[in-house]
Amino acid sequence: MSAIARTFTRTPFRRAIQIRRGGHHEGYNQPTGYLFGEKPLAPGAKRVKEDWEPLMYYGFFGSMVFATALVYYKPDTNVHTWAYREAKARMAARGETVEYKKQE
C-alpha cells in the first residue's frame, strides 16, 4: 500500500477518535449544590431574568394556546361524517325521512 493511500485510510479514523473524545475538556459542570447553579438571593433582592426567558415563556405558551385553538376549530374531515351528511342529503332529496321514530 502506498503512503498516500495509507494516509487517506487512517486520517478519518483518527479524526473520529478525536471527535468522540470531545477535545480534552471537562465533560460536565462541577456540582455546586444550588438549584440550576444559581446561588440563593439575599433577602429582599429580586431575581433578574435572562434575555431568553420572556421570549421562551410568551413564545412557548402562546404557541400552545394557538395550537389548542387550531385543534379545537379544525374542520371535521372524517369519512364517516361525510358519508352521513351525504346519505342524509340524498334521502332528503328522495323525500324519505331521516330521523328514526321510537317503536313502542
From TrEMBL:
It is a single-pass membrane protein. InterPro entries: NADH_UbQ_OxRdtase_ESSS_su. The chain crosses the membrane at residues 55-73. The keyword Transport applies. It holds the Pfam family ESSS. One of its GO terms (cellular component) is mitochondrial inner membrane. The keyword Membrane applies. Belongs to the complex I NDUFB11 subunit family. Accessory subunit of the mitochondrial membrane respiratory chain NADH dehydrogenase (Complex I), that is believed not to be involved in catalysis. Complex I functions in the transfer of electrons from NADH to the respiratory chain. The immediate electron acceptor for the enzyme is believed to be ubiquinone. Complex I is composed of 45 different subunits. Interacts with BCAP31. This is NADH dehydrogenase [ubiquinone] 1 beta subcomplex subunit 11, mitochondrial. The lineage of its organism: Eukaryota, Fungi, Fungi incertae sedis, Mucoromycota, Mortierellomycotina.
